[in-house]
Specification:
By secondary structure, the chain is an alpha/beta fold. The chain has 9 helices and 7 strands. Helix 1 crosses helix 3. The chain is globular and about 65 Å long. The two termini are 17 Å apart. The model has no long low-confidence stretch (mean pLDDT 95).
Length: 229
Amino acid sequence: MAVDDATADIAAILILNCHRNVLAASDNLRQGRWRNGVRMGVDPQGKVLGVLGAGGIGRTLAKRMFGFDLKKILYYNRNRLSEELEKEFHLEYADFETLLKTSDIISVHCPLNASTRHLISYKEFSMMKDNVILVNTARGKVINEAALVNALERGKVLAAGLDVFEDEPKISPGLLSHPRSVLLPHIGTFTNESQYKMEKLVLDNMVAALENNTLLTPVSEHKHFFNKK
């Protein structure tokens, strides 16, 4: 998919930034304080990564993060992947609650629909491990931002890395002011190469629809309108 590589890259960047406080350390240096006041980082090695949504982006993130010597990579998906895909991307299936309860890092990659709006809210945060790292490069409304701010303030969430927001470009003041939130202005696919791939895929889908009554990349809700060849 056109968006997979660039979005997975940003998710990996956010995960590492949340571990090592790179942006905060850079800001500190620019302000002449060197390391004074910079929070000690943590290592990703030996941690459990939970991938919430194992489509193209989630699987690509797993491929990116495998090289960091994680303990294991769990995933939850509406449909379990084939054994071949699980092996290829070093993924282990877990149900939703198990993923929340056992992951040290949770990266969100599911679509936004009626069933996933506020999929992660107060109840879900209460299930998570203490000092969990949460990253979202999917859709902002999948996470209840008020619940996330509460979890950051209580120390439940060690750090949050977000490229998407509930009411973007408006950002929650609680997130803006929190020192352990890493916030990006929805740059997941903001590269020259990805923009080209996205535009080409749109045109290729239009041609497939008009000429062959099918789509190259139909979403589940639209599949019944077309023949999938």
